[in-house]
Amino acid sequence: MNGNQTAEETRKKAIRLFFAIWPDKETRMRLGRLAGRLASACEGRKIKTENIHLTLVFVGEVNTSQMTALYKTVDEIKDSGLRAFDLPIERICIWKRKNIVYAEISAIPQSLIDLVEALQSRLSSAGFSLEQRPYKPHITLMRNASCKTLPELAEPMVWRAREWVLVKSDRTSDGSVYTQIGRWSLEG
Predict the structure, then answer these.
(1) Are strands 42-46 and 15-21 parallel, antiparallel or unpaired?
(2) Residue 33 pLDDT > 60
């Protein structure tokens, strides 16, 4: 077996991971209906209702041999007193450069920032290579979007974040499939 085959085998064993806040069923359904409304007002690809989430930290490709270090890092974070929080959603926005339509979080809770910073800091210290860009929390509803106008929210939404999850992302011909492989509660 040559070096390329070994590298290819290692790549195939890697899994694509990210940490996220996953909506409860009611919030997920409301955001899914909103994505459906957007799909009728815009061209593009709406996010499947079951895939709607708020990304905390994208970890990327992780080899199965790194999973022990990942879970050890999470164990350090989960007992650090991180608090539950609410995510107020008051408007729909578009990133024209990226053609992404998203639900904007109008007031970013400090507890969300604390959770993201804890994940980034501890994962980096554990040797995971993370993206180095400022965190801008948003809930993607459409990709490759072209909209003449964006609908207004009939009324603001409040998403109650009471836990965070580790998600495995698999790419398929039908788009991404997300599987939650870890779940941790937030206090309060």
Answers:
(1) unpaired
(2) yes
Domain spans in the chain, listed from the N-terminal domain onward: 3-185
What pLDDT is recorded for position 60?
93
pTM for this structure?
A: 0.89
- Homologous superfamily of 3-185 in CATH? Cyclic phosphodiesterase (3.90.1140.10)
pLDDT of residue 5 exceeding 70: no
Contact partners, residue 160, CB within 8 Å, separation at least 6: 24, 27, 84, 86, 87
Backbone dihedral angles phi then psi of residue 35, each to the nearest 5 degrees: -60, -35
Q: Do 19 and 119 contact (CB within 8 A), yes or no?
A: yes
Q: Label residues 79-94 b or e (16+ Cβ within 10 Å = b).
A: eeebeebebebeebeb
